[in-house]
Design goal:
Elements: H1 2-22, H2 29-52, H3 57-60, H4 67-98, H5 106-131, H6 138-153, H7 160-177, H8 182-206
Helix pairs in contact: 2-4, 2-8, 5-6, 6-7, 6-8, 7-8
Keywords: Membrane, Transmembrane, Transmembrane helix
Transmembrane segments: 24-50, 70-91, 111-131, 137-154, 161-181, 187-205
Length: 207
């Protein structure tokens, strides 16, 4: 009995070693929580801006926004991205130090490359939508391409991120149909879902 238990423990240890060698497992759940909070703050700022300028996204989503409106939305999006990336870098580096692992290695490089390709493609696609004045599809496109990026990178990090990616894609497709709810679904996808996902990962792997 003891021999069988020792063999099972040895196999479990071998599996953990192989997992660590092929996946970047230092991704912190707190980075997801703070990314979600950043998105909620950004959505609140946009909602305030719309109310100040009498813009009703639900009825005006197909109308042409002014140049000032577009620049403001881009500034908020960049601010959310920088804040989310900064907190993700900090908490992931801290988690890696706690686990005595390197933050920048072959696994993290592969993860970033596989995330970057769909994200860069989505960024260019959203820029094309803006160029043609199709603003009501920008939020859905962001959700879809972000979900594809998570799905593409999930094989190089925690498997839980795969499910988040699938839900983001579904939300994006729903937002493509119900375009008037694009901003609300963007807030759910990038805000609330990130907070829920980050909390689950944190209590599952880091506590």
């Amino acid at each position: 009995m003891n021999q069988q238990q020792d063999q099972l423990e040895a196999l479990h240890e071998i599996r953990n070693i192989m997992d660590r060698s092929s996946r970047f497992i230092s991704l912190s759940g707190l980075s997801g929580v703070f990314a979600g909070l950043s998105a909620l703050v950004g959505a609140a700022v946009v909602k305030w801006y719309f109310s100040q300028h009498n813009i009703n996204y639900y009825s005006d989503q197909a109308s042409n926004f002014s140049r000032q409106d577009i620049l403001f939305l881009l500034a908020v999006a960049i601010g959310v991205l920088v804040l989310a990336f900064g907190t993700a870098t900090y908490f992931t580096a801290r988690n890696a130090r706690k686990k005595n692992q390197r933050t920048w290695d072959n696994q993290s490089k592969r993860l970033l490359v596989n995330l970057a390709i769909p994200l860069a493609t989505g960024g260019v696609f959203c820029a094309i939508l803006l160029y043609h004045g199709i603003l009501y599809l920008v939020a859905p496109a962001m959700l879809v391409f972000y979900g594809l990026a998570l799905l593409n990178g999930s094989k190089y990090t925690l498997g839980d991120i795969r499910y988040l990616g699938i839900i983001e894609i579904i939300l994006g497709l729903v937002a493509c149909v119900f375009v008037g709810y694009g901003l609300m679904l963007w807030t759910v996808g990038f805000g609330m879902l990130h907070i829920v996902y980050g909390a689950l990962v944190y209590f599952k792997y880091e506590r």
